[in-house]
């Protein structure tokens, strides 16, 4: 799709900048660690992951979408619906698949060893939304390509989904203050930072809740929703108990962490 990369980069940097400024003006929690060191590690992972995907995959979700449309692959390519209806259905279906993927990464031990790096951040802010191991990104890309083919998602829906997923991941990891009354209404339609922050708690039963990224409905429907952390947002501890030493959280150690002996 022409201009796709420009659109994605523009949204990525715009959301990053807006949420980062919001975190300075109205933070939700006091940070406990070195912000610069965390930002260098988390944003370095963005660059590494981008290179890894481009080296491994010869085709991307928009490309597989065009190929599926050309060859009649996928459920939405065999039904007669207007493009807007197909796009809405595709975005919702892709979001549910990403929710299920996230659940699997928590409950399958081999996948948890890869995903847990995301949870080792000792603070949570906008950059945590980009803190994923390259192996997780590659597996996720494979799942996404399969899902787009199976659904027959229109190309415009794939672009919308990719842009929204990245934007909401940064937003709902933001260390930003939203008034409780507004948050209660917002989380009926989107996943707010207070809703997702519970997921990054050190308490396992909280870590294994609130798996959604875009739409907040899947957690409620599937019984994985938890409204608030037990210790409150200011009092809760972020991260994993096994990985709390700064020396274990450098970029090099993050990359080799799936092979580390410590596990939950």
TrEMBL record:
Keyword Plastid: no
Pfam families, alphabetized: FA_hydroxylase (PF04116)
Compartments (UniProt record): Endomembrane system
Annotated transmembrane regions: 6-25, 46-68, 88-112, 145-165
The entry's keywords: Lipid metabolism, Membrane, Oxidoreductase, Transmembrane, Transmembrane helix
GO BP of this protein: lipid biosynthetic process; membrane lipid metabolic process
GO molecular function: glyceryl-ether monooxygenase activity; iron ion binding
The UniProt record lists the keyword Oxidoreductase: yes
Any one of the GO CC terms: endomembrane system
Coiled-coil boundaries: none
Domain of life: Bacteria
Broad class of where this protein is predominantly found: membrane
Ranges where the Fatty acid hydroxylase domain occurs: 88-224
Membrane topology listed for this record: Multi-pass membrane protein
Name listed for the protein in its UniProt record: Sterol desaturase family protein
Source organism of this protein record: Oryzomonas japonica
Taxonomic placement: Bacteria, Pseudomonadati, Thermodesulfobacteriota, Desulfuromonadia, Geobacterales
